[in-house]
Amino acid sequence: MRILHTESSLGWGGQEIRILDEARGLIARGHEVMLATPVQARIHDEAPKRGVPVAVAPIARKNLSGWLAMRRFIAAHRPEVINTHSSTDAWLAALACASLGNAPPIVRTRHISAPIPRNPATRWLYQRATSHIATTGTALRDQLIRGNGFDPARIVSVPTGIDAERFRPGDRMARRRELQLPTEATIVGIVATLRSWKGHRFLIEALGRIDDPQVLLVIVGDGPMRQVLAQDIDKPGLRDRVRMVGQHDDVLPWLQAFDLFALPSYANEGVPQALVQAMLCALPCVTTDIGAIGEAARDDQTALIVPPQDAAALAAALRRLIGDRDLRQRLGAAARAGCEARFSYRGMLDAMENIFRAAIAAAAAR
To answer: Which letter does DSSP use for residue 269 in this model?
Structure first.
């Protein structure tokens, strides 16, 4: 198959990593895959590192020039199927295809749980201009069916697959020495883009409620909240207990160095890749039940679930894990087993191949 991925977002996070990992896997299976994205997008620079062909397309905005650029690109490359990922490129691709003869079908991947407007234009986009919809979790699929009334026959949940052979427990003390982290501390970690809804501020507040100087917080990631978070931790009692280590392309060493993992998101989640990666590393996790997180994290079975935006509850859950070694081991083992079964990389590729083939077949039958 000739597959075109489009991504208008300039940011960097789980969505963009999923696109590249999926594209790389399908290329390895013999498909011809290309990514179209603005030159200023981070994914533009990351794609070649992962062996994914990338082309510049000025599609960062919903305007006439973006529509014309998308139309020219599709007409020139003639993919068999287009996979859109963000609102802007989804609209541009849909309108471009509507103006082209014999246009390829569109598959829309929904990565997050942000609500979709209920209006005629959006319904056209999802129900007529788009052939199939892939969601990154069952909860997101249910949201589109129940909340928007979209046809369930054309919506498939395809969780992001993670390589369980790579993400696995490691030598914690060796990793700490490698990363210059204290070997005697209890380290709570978070790996997430520094966006407000990831809940970093509540995690920092929760740490301040834990009266133990040996409990440290390590924040892996970068993003628009960096300066705000730096100000939050520049306080007595926190300065020496929080480390912001920035963006790292390879997060595995950090996960293998942590004792606990926390992701207190309060909006816009599918099944977060970092959470699944942490669970595959058998880390006991504290998180919320936002978006499709509940498909990986089940309270007191594979993780501890706390209400969103509740620093007191988050602190209580962390204290519980810190004080109960058996609970940590039980949750970590169950988390790894569950994620191995539900979030396989091969399963993701199989499912996306099936969706693309179904979209192409449906278009050919019209």
So the answer is: -
Which segments of the chain have a pLDDT < 50?
none
In terms of DSSP bridges, do strands 285-287 and 304-305 run parallel, antiparallel, or are they unpaired? parallel
Q: How does pLDDT run across 241-252, given as a tens digit for each residue? A: 999 999 998 999
Do 51 and 24 contact (CB within 8 A), yes or no? yes
**Per-residue 3-state assignment (H helix, E strand, C coil) for 119-161:** CHHHHHHHHHHCCEEEECCHHHHHHHHHHHCCCHHHEEECCCC
Rounded-to-integer distance, Cα 280 and Cα 167, Å: 6
For 150-175, the pLDDT digits (tens) are 999 999 999 999 999 999 999 999 99
CB 186 within 8 A of CB 207: no
Please state, in angstroms and rounded to a whole number, the distance separating the CA atoms of residues 261 and 275. Answer: 8
- Bridge partners of 37? 56
Cα 91 to Cα 53, 88, 261: the distances in Å are: 23, 5, 37
